[in-house]
Amino acid sequence: MEKNLRSFFRRSALNITLCIAFFAVVSFMIKAKVLNRYYANIINLVLIYIIAAVSLNLTCGYLGQLPLGHAGFMSIGAYTAAIITTRLSLPDIGPIPGKAILFFIATVAGGIVAMAAGVIIGLPALRLKGDYLAIITLAFGEIIRVLVQNIKITGGAMGMGGIGKYTTFGWGFFWTVMVVAFTFLLVNSRHGRAIKSVREDEIAAESVGINLTYYKIVAFAGAAFFAGVSGSLFAHHICYLEPGNFGYSMSIEMLVMVVLGGLGSISGSIISAAVLTIIPEVLQNFATWKMIIYSLLLVVVMIFKPSGLMGDYELSAARIIRKIFRKKEVAPKLPENYTEGGEADE
Amino acid sequence: MNNRTERTPLVPVPSGFLMREQDVDKTPVLEIRHLGVDFGGLTAVEDFNMALGRTEIAGLIGPNGAGKTTVFNLLTNEIEPTRGIIMIDGYDTRGKKPYEICRMGVARTFQNIRLFRNMTVLENVKIGLHNEMKYSLGEAVLRLPRYWSNEAVSDNRALELLSFFNMQDAAEMKAGSLPYGAQRRLEIVRALATNPSLLLLDEPAAGMNPSETVELMNNIRRIRDEFNIAVLLIEHDMNLVMGVCDGIVVLNYGKIIAKGSPDDIMSDPVVIEAYLGKADQ
After folding, report:
1. Are the Cβ atoms of A204 and B116 closer than 8 angstroms?
2. Please, which pLDDT band fits residue A305 given cuts at 50, 70 and 90?
3. Burial class of residue B196, CB neighbours in 10 A (0-12, 13-18, 19+)
4. Is the separation of the CB atoms in A23 and A230 below 8 Å?
5. Cα separation of B99 and B82, whole Å?
6. pLDDT tens digits, one per residue of B11-27
7. Closest CB from A191, A204, A337 relative to B140
8. Are A267 and A341 in contact (CB under 8 A)?
9. Other residues' Cβ atoms within 10 Å of the Cβ of residue B37
10. Interface check B99 vs A, CB under 8 A
11. pLDDT at B216 over 90
12. Which of A201, A270, B224, B273 shows the greatest Cβ crowding within 10 Å of its Cβ?
């Protein structure tokens, strides 16, 4: 126990240091205009997609279900948060601006409302498997879209404008670290093992005392919460919401990111979310070729590595450093059963 | 048959079942009365009665399609019984979910191995220890002290259980990459990790060679003696069944056609007829 604890603290310290370093470097580059607003925008968008993809990985990669309604949860989070920030205002508390507090509260609220929706839809839907679950969640996403289109408070089909541009690199990075840490710490605990056992074999899991319904709901609700969070960041990034933003094509896009990165790999989701968000931006000059390259990439990866880029492997800062510094050691022995997560990997 | 051990004789108990002498004055770990299940119009199991003493090894045998695995599925409530009562340690299991049955003390293995193949051997056993650990979701995510103490205890316990079958060295291997015999053993270890009072083994010797079967026989006895639990097994290998079981139940077409000690069963004309058919037509 002592040994595990010490190694955990050592790896955490390393990851936190790397996170802070990365954060400091990028925010300095944004401040110093090394990265102009266009690049800063892309970075924010990448972070938003990372949050959505990592959270989807929880249901898709670890729980082993096939939900197609992730954009629905994002949309719930986005509209909830946007309604809160556009209608309320908070006074500054000391040095902290009221807008920041309000944005934080709104984002958490968006997550919680999405989570509640996740539990409500999950209870009946998670009795189904595979294709049937996919269809039900797809329908759920569409229901949300049509609902948003037809109620007043969301601006209906006209969309919802006047949302403050609150999503900074800091917020995006904070929530990314949150979702990565949460997923990593959850997955490597008894609860995470229970979730993975559901993916491996439901009948066997139940026979060793795993409450299937409970753990399916836990994974589904956790994923919905962070989808809501990413929705809120998205809303305050593009500042204008319309129902079409969160169509089923967005759910599919999320799914592609997760599958491409590797089911059950947090660092895989991070990498593929980043790559798939950046590629369309970089290839804007070759707009005609964009979709071809995008699809080719998918086809090639699926043919040569069907388990995704990373499989269920995790990048670990601790392991990389160990490898660099102990190059000459023969066959380094890994004392830990669990590999380190990817907070500092991107 | 050279592997037979001394057996305590079976004695009848008031309800008409047979039981090992030493278990007679205790609550039977399993008691089944008039159990039956219909699939549509087909009656798969009918009027199934049995009781199992706390430290008994019992065999459930019968020709293919007799309904043996169905009885196991009924015991763990994977299939809801149409009629009858199942009692574990004297408690009725009606309406309980399979995971609740597991918490009541019934663990099982499967005819076609069901391991968590993409997870390590250690993780497989630790999933069996899931309910032995008590830390909550919040404690897990915040890595509070209870997480560390629980995980450390269960790590040791898992390795201890693995060492029972001499498998501690394979702890870090993927379960799916183990050889067949080791997979079967791992499934038993995982079942034992749930701290059962009754272990159900569904064809544990399937696909094993004679020497492995002898080893399995010894292991089943060791499980009974060291964990002090009852074992109910389905098996086609008669050497194993006759060698290890205290009592045997023979099932055919969903009905019990004979029960008793191995010697009774071997000489029972009804059993021989069920397996081999009638002598002269």
Report:
1. yes
2. confident
3. buried
4. no
5. 20
6. 776 656 677 777 777 78
7. A191
8. yes
9. 22
10. yes
11. yes
12. A270
Its domain, for residue A88, covers: 36-249
Contacts of A210 in chain B (CB under 8 A): 99, 127, 130
Query: What's the pLDDT tens digit per position in B75-122?
Result: 999 999 999 999 999 899 999 999 999 999 999 999 999 999 999 999
Residue A189 and residue B147: Cβ atoms within 8 Å? yes
Residue contacts between A and B (CB atoms, under 8 Å):
107
Q: Are B34 and B48 in contact (CB under 8 A)?
A: yes
Residues of A in contact with B201 (CB under 8 A): none
Count of CB atoms within 10 A of residue A165's CB?
11
Identify whether A226 is part of a domain: yes
User: How many domains does chain A contain in total?
Assistant: 1
Tens-place pLDDT, residues B111-170: 999 999 999 999 999 999 999 999 999 999 999 999 999 999 999 999 999 999 999 999
pLDDT at position B8, please? 65
User: Mean pLDDT in chain A?
Assistant: 87
Helical segments of A94-211, H only: 98-125, 130-150, 169-187, 190-200, 202-207
The answer to whether residues B73 and B66 touch, using CB atoms and an 8 Å cutoff, is: no
Q: Tell the residue number behind the tokens 């925008």, with chain if given.
A: A41
Q: Does B6 contact chain A (CB < 8 Å)? A: no
- What backbone torsions phi and psi does residue A333 show, to the nearest 5 degrees? -90, 135
Residue B31 in tokens: 């008691």
Query: Do the chains contact at A211 and B99, CB–CB below 8 Å?
Result: yes
The pLDDT of residue B244 is: 92
Q: At A92, which helix (H) or strand (E)?
A: none
Task: Over range A76-97, report the average pLDDT.
Answer: 88
Q: Which two tokens stand for residue B170?
A: 């394979």
Domains of chain B: 1-105+196-281 (3.40.50.300), 116-191 (no CATH)
How is residue A33 annotated by DSSP? T
